[in-house]
Design brief:
Length: 79
């Protein structure tokens, strides 16, 4: 059974909290704050695609399709 270090557990918890808060901000229309939180999540778990998908959606909401596409491509690379 694989085990996680205390640091890995902490990073994953920060990721989960950041994504949760970012989703709430995005749902309330606070896209800039959501992007800050999604970026924090990506920093803590850079090989997890979820935060990059959310960043793509947030940039879509701002009609910044070029930047959104960059994050969607990142998702495809990680999946």
């Amino acid at each position: 059974m694989p085990t996680k270090t205390e640091e890995e557990i902490q990073l994953r918890n920060i990721y989960i909290e950041s994504v949760y808060k970012g989703d709430k901000q995005a749902n309330n229309g606070n896209i800039k704050e959501a992007l800050v939180l999604f970026s924090k999540a990506a920093k803590n778990l850079p090989n997890h695609w979820g935060s990059y998908l959310r960043m793509g959606r947030a940039y879509d909401a701002q009609l910044d399709f070029k930047t959104a596409n960059k994050f969607y491509k990142k998702v495809l690379k990680l999946n």
